[in-house]
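Q: I'm writing a short explainer about NADH-quinone oxidoreductase subunit F for a general audience and would like to include a description of its predicted shape. Could you first generate the structure from this sequence?
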Amino acid sequence: MADPITPVLTKRWLSPNSWQIGTYEALEGYTAVRKALAGTPEQLVQVVKDSGLRGRGGAGFPAGIKWSFMPPNFDKPHYLVINADEGEPGTCKDIPLMMADPHSLIEGCIIASYAMRSNHCFIYVRGEALHCIRRLNAAVREAEAAGYLGENILGSGFDLKITVHAGAGAYICGEETALLDSLEGRRGQPRLKPPFPAAAGLYAAPTTVNNVETIASAPFIVNGGSSWFREMGREKSPGPKIYSISGHVEKPGQYECPLGTTLRELLDMAGGMKDGIPLKFWTPGGSSTPMFTAEHLDVPLDFEGAAEAGSMLGTTAVQVFNETVSVPWAVMKWTQFYEHESCGKCTPCREGTYWLAQILERMVEGHGTEEDIDTLLDVCDNILGRSFCALGDGAVSPIQSGIKYFRDEFLALCEANKRELVGAQA
Ligand code: NAD
Ligand code: SF4
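A: Of course. Here's the predicted structure. Afterward I'll give you a sentence or two in plain language.
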């Protein structure tokens, strides 16, 4: 059982006018930036490294190590880019964070920019979240007026400008290099890696792309220290995490817990299964992570625990489905999403997601055959590991895991079709 924690990232969310600078400052806001600017960038990178903070966008790459990849020279400007394009199905943590506590992200941006010697930070927000873009812009103006942004911040000699940039609603622009293309004003498509953004990112200059929740954690680490941060969560996955729970639960929403919390514990907090109808399947971190079943209620939801049990932590978007939901139908809906969002750059994903969606639609409409199940798995094998970016791999997760745990349901659809065909011939 994971120990409950005193809220960290969400601690101000329920305060009146939590998004305003006055509330933020009254609740310890902008105290970490003073400490940070009094030290050296190297000290900051070390504190974040020591904390063990791992990227909260889904991949879990150690944040301090990523920061340390930024080169020491200044032939070109350095950039910090915040990935606020939260688009993974079921994921709803970054937008609530930016709505409730935008200054924690801004303070994190100042700290991270100072650590990486960047004087310009971009926050790339998904275009549909207009309300969030407005709130962030208002918070940036408040921070500028208070002297936390602009030139010579708090007399430190450090300058920083923050630009809030609206995306245009493409899922692929959450992939960091497609995001950079989009930010440069081009069609968002993934770039070949390496070079990683620290070597050649925005405008081919050294860039670090970090998720909202990752950067919003920085002020707490600076104030609390790396040992305090490590007291929460698990050894290789320390710290608090915002789990977004949706679907058939009594109280869907965001729950901040230590990394390693199980679905059983999350369900307790979320009031249990809606109307008491039993759990059938769930995703630990969005639809790109292989689904789990009721057998996995006690899997610790941290980077290692989810992987050891055969899935991934991903974005901690816990989508819960009860017994009334057809797995082939849900898998079809997710696959239609990936087909629609495939950027078309590489053949396995562009063609494969098209065929996967066609086959699943045929099966769900009652015209599938048993061979279709093998064809689905075959197409998945030809996408997995053969696509240009993680979207292709993510697209096959629901299909492979759906067939692994619920093959009988796919078969039943085909059997029903077979009976109808035999009946028609008789
Ligand atoms: P990745 O593992 O390729 O990279 C993660 C980060 O680490 C990147 O910033 C990358 O530049 C850096 N990195 C990795 N190896 C490096 C190296 N050798 N040198 C320097 N930097 C290195 O993963 P990814 O493709 O960026 O992201 C995949 C994840 O995104 C999935 O796990 C999925 O859960 C998540 N995702 C999130 C959303 C969302 O809405 N938040 C949407 C879709 C997918
Ligand atoms: Fe585009 Fe899909 Fe290829 Fe990624 S895997 S580059 S989204 S076509």
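A: For your explainer, you could say: The chain has 16 helices and nine strands.
Q: Perfect, that's easy to follow.
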